[in-house]
Amino acid sequence: MRSRRQRNEFTPPNRIFYGWWIVIVSSILGMFGNGSISNGFPRFFEPIRSDLGISYFRMSLVFSLARAEGGVGGPVVGWLVDRYGARPMIFFGGLLAGIGLMFLSQAHSYWALVFLFAGVVSVGKTAALGQTLMAAVNQWFIRRKALALSTLMTSFAAGGAFVVLLLDFGISQIGWRSTIFVTGLFITLLTIPVALVIRSRPEDIGLLPDGDPPLQDSDWENSVVSGQTSVSVEQNFTVKQALSTNSFWLILLGVITRVSATNAIIVHIFPILELKGLDERTASAYVAFMFLMAIPLRFVLGVAG
């Protein structure tokens, strides 16, 4: 009875499957969170460097430490998501990233910048705004997983396309400190309703992946025997089993190669473009256009894959 009552509450007849609400809110948070902290934050590279009077090397080191934290913290976050679910990770990580940005707006020394960006904001971003959102969406779909995850990943590119322009406008109008503060406040306020909507697994509210209707034991046995079951079934691997496959290591190698190359370019793209003679507004438009071109590619190739 409890499963049926929960199903009526979260997915009434002829209503959208609750998993798609997970995709929508995750995409919104991912667009603004990743757009601000990952794809858009290099827009602050030169304003912060000039204001604090630090070298290009020391400024690049801040970004490198933040990326290194993400690499080290990723497996830890994965373990925490498995143990406690995506919802608390998104809540606490999103608040940490947002509040960290607000404090970062008041940084007046290099070491304060290192601590707040690499040690606070980046930790919050790793905990809430990347793989945790993907894990939350992943749990809700099997047959439609490619479509759901492609939608989420497309939102990350959309953040780079549109949020970069918003950050550029903010910096030109109110300065980098006020822009970072407003960005942190927005992420903090956005995290709260998103976390309230997130549910870690469909089974937690009496649903099944892809919105498949729950079956009674007798119905399940009959459908399996007849070969007519429509319920999605997915093969799962333990960590040990995954580590023993060649596919895992090939995927890991591919991800490391791609992320290393793209991060190196994105972090330094604004200084590079400005050294080539582009002003800050034109450089922002160039970067936004680059991510705009990635939107259809991410979606189409993700679904096709």
Could you give a quick summary of the protein structure above?
By secondary structure, the protein is mainly α. 78% of the residues lie in helices and 0% in strands.
Secondary structure: elements and pairs:
Elements: H1 2-10, H2 18-39, H3 45-52, H4 56-84, H5 86-104, H6 110-128, H7 131-138, H8 145-197, H9 217-226, H10 239-243, H11 246-275, H12 280-304
Helix pairs in contact: 2-7, 2-8, 4-5, 4-6, 5-6, 5-7, 5-8, 7-8, 8-12, 11-12
Describe the structure.
- Helix 2 (18-39) packs antiparallel against helix 7, helix 5 (86-104) packs antiparallel against helix 6 and helix 5 crosses helix 8 (145-197).
- It contains twelve helices and no strands.
- The protein has helices at 2-10, 18-39, 45-52, 56-84, 86-104, 110-128, 131-138, 145-197, 217-226, 239-243, 246-275, 280-304.
- It has one domain (2-212, 239-304): Up-down Bundle (Growth Hormone, Chain: A).
- The model is unreliable at 1-8 (pLDDT under 50).
Keyword list:
305 residues; 0% strand; disordered N terminus; 78% helix; Growth Hormone, Chain: A; mainly alpha
